[in-house]
Amino acid sequence: DTEVTQTPKHLVMGMTNKKSLKCEQHMGHRAMYWYKQKAKKPPELMFVYSYEKLSINESVPSRFSPECPNSSLLNLHLHALQPEDSALYLCASSQDHRQDTQYFGPGTRLTVL
Amino acid sequence: GENVEQHPSTLSVQEGDSAVIKCTYSDSASNYFPWYKQELGKRPQLIIDIRSNVGEKKDQRIAVTLNKTAKHFSLHITETQPEDSAVYFCAASNSGSARQLTFGSGTQLTVLP
């Protein structure tokens, strides 16, 4: 089963709200990723978790806070976002951080009002 | 860091014709090159990938070629069908420990019936 799932599919939030995005995989992968994708642009890497530890933070603002509770789950906590943060947020996973093939989830379409 | 350039940005072909998308990369240490297809509102889906120890790989109507000396790789789709219409992203994997993917800017392929 090469599937990564994400919830919710769509999210609308105000700039003062706190919300969380969730990602789950049951492929036994040990590396998980958060990407941000704007319309007609490629995915931009935000965070990489390897064996449940944060290994890369691509200078992402602190209003985005990742969390990896266990090897199957990845969360992205959102607080005090700006309208320009509206985008498709994609989660991906790979077997481990040295295995290249990344499988993407369907994404969460986030709109910040 | 790695830089991946992708051309063309848009490509229209008649159904049944072939389509070619080209990418160049800058980091000679990159050794993994996946291609993703992303339909409107959907997740990026891996369609084919190639590693640097191979010059060409084929999967039915899709093929990828790699020229390590020139640092470029190409996606070839033969006998195109309307369902091939999508945005295609090339990517290159760096040699760092987290195996980050650097994406090209994308090609919008339209197959005209």
Short account of what is shown:
Chain A has strands at 4-7, 10-13, 18-25, 31-37, 44-50, 53-57, 64-70, 73-79, 87-94, 103-104, 108-112. Chain A has 113 residues and is mainly beta.
Write a structural description.
The complex is a heterodimer of chains A (113) and B (113). Chain A is mostly beta strands. Chain A contains no helices and eleven strands. The radius of gyration of chain A is 13 Å and the shape is globular. Chain B is mainly beta and 113 residues long. Helices cover 0% and strands 56% of the residues of chain B. Chain B has no helices and eleven strands. In chain B, strands 2, 4, 5, 9, 10 and 11 form a six-stranded mixed beta sheet that branches. A five-stranded antiparallel beta sheet of chain B has the order 1-3-8-7-6, with no helix packed on it. In chain B, a hairpin with a 2-residue loop joins β6 and β7. Chain B is globular. At the A-B interface, β5 and β10 of A face β4, β5 and β9 of B.
Name some characteristics of this structure.
heterodimer; A: 113 residues; mainly beta; seven-stranded mixed beta sheet; four-stranded antiparallel beta sheet; 57% strand; B: 113 residues; six-stranded mixed beta sheet; five-stranded antiparallel beta sheet; globular
